[in-house]
Design goal:
3 strands, globular, alpha+beta, about 60% helix, three-stranded antiparallel β-sheet
Amino acid sequence: MSGSFNGTSYRDQLDRVERFFVRVQQHNKSHTEYDDDLWSFFIHAWALKDWIKNDEDLPEGARNRIVTEVEDDFDLQVCADIANRTKHVVLNRHSRHDSKPVRRDVVVGGGIRSTHHIGLKSGDTVIAQELAERVVAKWKALLNELDEHAL
């Protein structure tokens, strides 16, 4: 585990995102607990942008570049919509893709598995668990680049 003792480094939040991602991959819990973990993952994953933006141990230029890249990324925009809708129920300010949970499929047999579908303004849907995988991969790629070039 990386991060600072006092919980002010973006790495502390990245660790939290990774812990919630592990929880999202585990289906051995009630539907309510699984839903809590899934939607909490998106809240923490989107909050990582603010942790980076406010981490004064990072060069300002690197922070600004990462924030800009994050805000321009489709998957991270959907993550933002889900995080903000989960926290506020309704998106009154800025909806990127009007992303919202629209359906949950439950498969029973060899354990119970839920698949959550997120609807977009375009009419398309994305599977929440697949989106979570892409979000983690994108954060890791952006932060690996940050570590290599900015620090």
